[in-house]
Amino acid sequence: MGRFARAGAMVGALVLTASLALTGCGGDEEKPAFVPGQQQVGGVSSSAPDPSAAPSDAADAAPPLTVSPADGATGRPVSSEISARIPGGGTVSKVVLTTADGATVAGRMRRDGSSWVPSTALKYATKYTATVTGTGKDGAPHQGTSTFTTMAKPKSMIGSGLYLFSDKTYGVAMPVVAEFSPGIPKKDRAAVQKRMFVQTDPPQPGAWHWVGNGTQAYYRAPEYWKTGTTLTVRLALAGIPLSNGKYGNIDRSATAKIGRAFEMSVDNATKRMTVSENGAVIRTLPVSLGKKSTPSSSGTMVVMEKKESTVFDTRDEPDPNNQYVTKIDFAQRLTWGGEYIHAAPWSEGVQGRRNVSHGCVNVSMADGRWLFGKTLIGDPITVKGTERQLAPGNGWTAWSMSWSRFVEGSALPVPKGGQPEPF
User: Fold this and answer.
1) Which of 119, 301, 392, 393 could be cross-linked to 211 through a Cys-Cys bond (beta carbons 3.0 to 4.6 Å apart)?
2) How far, in Å, CA of 36 to CA of 48, rounded?
């Protein structure tokens, strides 16, 4: 088992105010996750209403609706959304948000109509005016206006990261992984989760699952992503207030592709790996798994990191028999604890017959090279029949549980079949 200190191998690349470079985290570029100036209804994009269009005379004369943030409010979070209450009930049809110099802020209405979300975080210590138009249940038009000011930039912020790079292609089991330091308090997770937006094309429902003490959250669909899917993710956390006195640091976003369906399955009983691509078996490889004192984990893992050549240094292991420094070729990380798929020429003689590794999936040099050339970050591997079960959070373990178990980790209710997309 190759043990790297997590800070050195993976999360050292987790830049809490920048990108998570080693394992596909979103960069610091604050690209809007959604196309400015567009609305999306039922998965179909259409042009947003012209914010410069003057309201009708009827709207001018209609009873005012109540806008939130309230008129005159100060110190509002830069994560604020615009909502409104129409007397007697009704539907908001248009929101225009402008700065003091008249610049218009892009945004879109949530699918459920509960609020309008700016496409990027608002600026600190800035005055905004929201003009909201709606229609009452009786068909009468309503309009309301609110001018509010955002808070100054806070001093105490959380760190955050997104394990996804824009313009990259990932395997069908790639979860959206958000990471926080320190973890998000349990009482705040619902509010934070409401600001973590995932859209898919073609549309696929999904859900979030919080891990451990709130340092990570995974998003996945009920099944593996469809091949060719585009994932558009925005963690709109800049300025979101938390109960521990901290605030979200920045918005993070990424748009990535899902590639072909490539799956690996390892059975300890046969000591064989079956490799499938797009549903067809393309190769079967002999393997050697972890010996009984250092067993491999059974469960569904994903490829988190790939290194053509690296060094495993386990001299901090308490057992002298498990201490070594070894050069490793074609290493593919599966867990934070140090389990990899990698070439092991020293065990080729027993691969397919006996387990001798320290927890890794050993393959021959030729098979390691071939497999390394085929896999993507996010490709799944399922190992079964070993002496140890995969621990939740030891790697990106989003798929190592049933869908019903996964949605239990959501901070918000999840409808049967998954949460619909927010826009």
Assistant:
1) 393
2) 9
Flag whether pLDDT at 33 surpasses 90.
Answer: no
Distance of alpha carbon 149 from the chain centroid = 31
Query: At residue 192, what is the residue type?
Result: V
| Radius of gyration, alpha carbons of the chain | 25
Whether 360 sits among the annotated catalytic residues: the reply is yes
Residue 265 half-sphere exposure toward CB, CA atoms < 13 A: 11
Rounded to an integer, the average pLDDT of 57-63 is: 53
Q: Percentage of the chain with pLDDT > 90?
A: 79
SS3 letters across the chain: CCCCCHHHHCCCCECCCCCECCCCCCCCCCCCCCCCCEEEECCEEEECCCCCCCCCHHHHHCCECEEECCCCCCCECCCCCEEEECCCCEEEEEEEEEECCCCEECEEECCCCCCEEECCCCCCCCEEEEEEEEEECCCCEEEEEEEEEECCCCCCECEEEECCCCCCEECCCCCEEEEEECCCCHHHHHHHHCCEEEEEECCCCEEEEEECCCCEEEEECCCCCCCCCEEEEEECCCCCECCCCCECCCCEEEEEEECCCEEEEEECCCCEEEEEECCEEEEEEECECECCCCCCEEEEEECCEEEEEEEEECCCCCCHHHCCEEEEEEEEECCCCCCEEEECHHHCCCCCCCCCECCCEEECHHHHHHHHHHCCCCCEEEEECCCEECCCCCCCCCCCCCHHHHHCCCCCCCCCCCECCCC
Q: How far apart are CA 417 and CA 254, in angstroms?
A: 25
- What pTM was computed for the model? 0.82
Ordered by where they begin, the domains of the chain are 20-31+156-260 (2.60.40.3710), 38-149 (2.60.40.3780), 262-398 (2.40.440.10)
Give the active site residue among 25, 142, 209, 342.
342
Do the beta carbons of residue 411 and residue 189 sit within 8 Å? Answer: yes
Report whether the peptide linkage leading into residue 87 is cis, meaning its omega lies within 30 degrees of zero: no
Q: Which of 120, 117, 108, 98 is nearest to 49 (CA)?
A: 108
Annotation says 25 is catalytic:
no
